[in-house]
Design brief:
Blueprint lengths: L1 H32 L4 H36 L7 H24 L1 H8 L5 H14 L2 H17 L4 H25 L10 H23 L20 H29 L9 H35 L3 H28 L1 H6 L5 H15 L2 H16 L4 H26 L8 H28 L4 H28 L11 H25 L4 H10 L7
Length: 537
């Protein structure tokens, strides 16, 4: 357990710093181009395009398939050197080809993702996209190297490298403000402005990837270009990745529908950029808690599954869900209570913060289910089963598409105001995730002959029981300090401070109630937290 704790602390600490600098990056970006402007939404679409490809590579193929396969390849006579060399060569060729094709197709990609944008805004988004789409190559290499490091239990660099990206971006965006001043108009942009803003975003990814390569020697693997892609099991990866690829493509198609729906929102209302920033807030606890704790568990779970020790896998699943749950439930309560001041960090006015907070709350509905899904889905991957996750993900994607289209229909019929369209899309996504995790858990229980679901559901119930008064206490603090007319929403910096105050209140009350309930998971959580303190090992 100490190895899991040390790895979790290392990943978690890096993720915290990365997310905090990422927050600052987004604050500076909003200050430069606005939260609900035409320019802001144009850049949001363009900069999201390479991220969509990265999602296919990282969330799909790499984390699902490569980690278990590299763990297995370590048992080869050469320690997996030939396997990794062929894998990296093939991956680089595919990434380079994909980058070239996507960059050439930039105008069509923008038109596909944002059909509701007027011509000037589409042209601006396309100009941004030409600068942003080369990120695909470097995102992919970053994911390939990072997941290989994770598979060799070298967890730190993959988590800490994005901090450099954020620093480069912050510096570049500040230079943009210094040179050109804040602007969001779709007609005010010059080629120099586009190059500084979008070029900065891409430069950050390039530097981030280059730094990660400096740590490769810690894997103990010496790789070389190898175009002989047969003979060491790449066919098995292709078979496994086929289902994963289709699954992630389905997710991207669902995201495409959401983007198309949001492109019809008037520029003065919460749109694509607001949705992205709300998602950034939503992902803060997910990244810090779920990825930092769950990633080391996944590596160990893969080893147990490969050895056929199903009972130990069941134990891993239960322990990881209970450990994740004690933190995730607290984060959900804290972020819900602080939704308005937290949203103020990424908006230009209190009214914009209230609208963005509604979007965040709709996303938060799925935070706890997604933590459970992280464990359940990767349990299938540990058994080299990517086919089953494809089917329950297809169900989730279908619900996402149907709810997004329903929201758009309600908007066109005048039933749903444009200011609430993004929130409706977010709520539909959360509902789809809840359905997905229920189906996925049922399927995994059938496969393993039982998951001891009752034990970790009971634990989640205890956490929820403690979270209700904790969240209420945080909301009461917000109201007592002025609510939407108070100091917490008067400025971006004060919004961050207010969110921190509310979060501390929620956490203190939550821990107190868990202690009263004598929750056994509290001692485990306390042990993990102690590993973040200076001087602890």
């Amino acid at each position: 357990m100490s190895g899991i704790g040390r790895a979790s602390a290392l990943i978690g600490a890096g993720t915290i710093v990365s997310r905090l600098t990422g927050f600052l990056r987004s604050v500076v970006l909003v200050s430069a181009i606005g939260a609900t402007t035409a320019g802001g939404n144009a850049f949001a679409i363009a900069n999201q395009l390479p991220n969509n490809i990265y999602a296919i590579i990282s969330t799909g193929l790499l984390s699902a398939v490569v980690v278990p396969q590299i763990v297995k390849a370590a048992a080869h006579d050469d320690g997996g050197r030939a396997f990794v060399s062929k894998l990296f060569t093939l991956g680089t060729v595919v990434l380079l080809g994909t980058t070239i094709i996507a960059t050439v197709a930039a105008p069509w990609l923008v038109a596909l993702y944002a059909p509701g944008y007027p011509p000037q805004q589409q042209a601006l988004a396309t100009a941004f996209a030409y600068w942003c789409l080369p990120q695909i190559l470097f995102y992919g290499l970053f994911a390939l190297v990072g997941e290989s490091l994770n598979a060799r239990r070298v967890y730190g660099p993959y988590t800490w490298a994005p901090i450099v990206n954020n620093i480069v971006s912050i510096a570049g965006f500040l230079v943009f403000i210094w040179l050109f001043g804040p602007t969001g108009s779709a007609t005010a942009w010059t080629p120099e402005m586009i190059a500084v803003l979008a070029g900065t975003a891409t430069l950050g990814i390039v530097v981030q990837t280059g730094i990660l390569f400096l740590f490769w020697r810690q894997t103990g693997l010496h790789i070389r270009p190898d175009f002989a892609w047969r003979g060491v099991g790449l066919g098995q990866i292709g078979k496994l990745a086929g289902w994963t690829f289709l699954m992630v493509v389905a997710g991207q198609l669902a995201g495409l529908v959401q983007s198309q729906v949001m492109s019809e929102i008037p520029k003065s209302d919460p749109g694509v950029f607001v949705a992205q920033n709300a998602w950034l807030l939503f992902m803060l606890p997910y990244s810090i808690i779920v990825l930092s704790i769950g990633t080391p568990y996944f590596t160990r779970l893969s080893e147990h599954a490969a050895a056929g020790r199903d009972d130990e896998v069941r134990g891993d699943i239960g322990r990881s869900i209970r450990t994740l749950g004690v933190f995730v439930v607290a984060a959900t309560a804290a972020l819900a209570a602080a939704a308005i001041p937290a949203s103020r960090i990424f908006t230009d006015s209190p009214d914009e913060a209230v609208g963005a907070a509604g979007v965040l709350l709709c996303y938060l509905v799925s935070l706890i289910p997604l933590a459970v899904l992280f464990v359940v889905q990767r349990s299938f991957y540990a058994y080299d089963d990517t086919r089953t996750p494809f089917f329950f993900t297809i169900l989730q994607c279908a619900i996402v598409v149907l709810t997004a289209w329903s929201a758009l229909w309600a908007f066109h019929e005048g039933v749903l105001p444009s200011a609430q369209l993004v929130a409706a899309v977010a709520l539909g996504q959360s509902f789809a995730s809840v359905v997905q995790v229920i189906v996925a858990t049922w399927l995994l229980q059938r496969r393993l002959g039982g998951l001891r679901v009752g034990s970790w559901l009971l634990a989640l119930g205890r956490f929820a029981l403690a979270a209700i008064p904790a969240g209420a206490a945080g909301w009461l603090v917000f109201q007592l300090l002025g609510g939407t007319a108070g100091w917490m929403v008067s400025d971006k910096l004060l919004g961050a401070l207010g969110a921190a105050v509310i979060g501390i209140v929620v956490l203190v009350v939550y821990v107190g109630f868990l202690a009263l309930l004598r929750a056994p998971e509290l001692s485990v959580a306390t042990g993990l937290v102690r590993r973040f303190l200076p001087g602890r090992r």
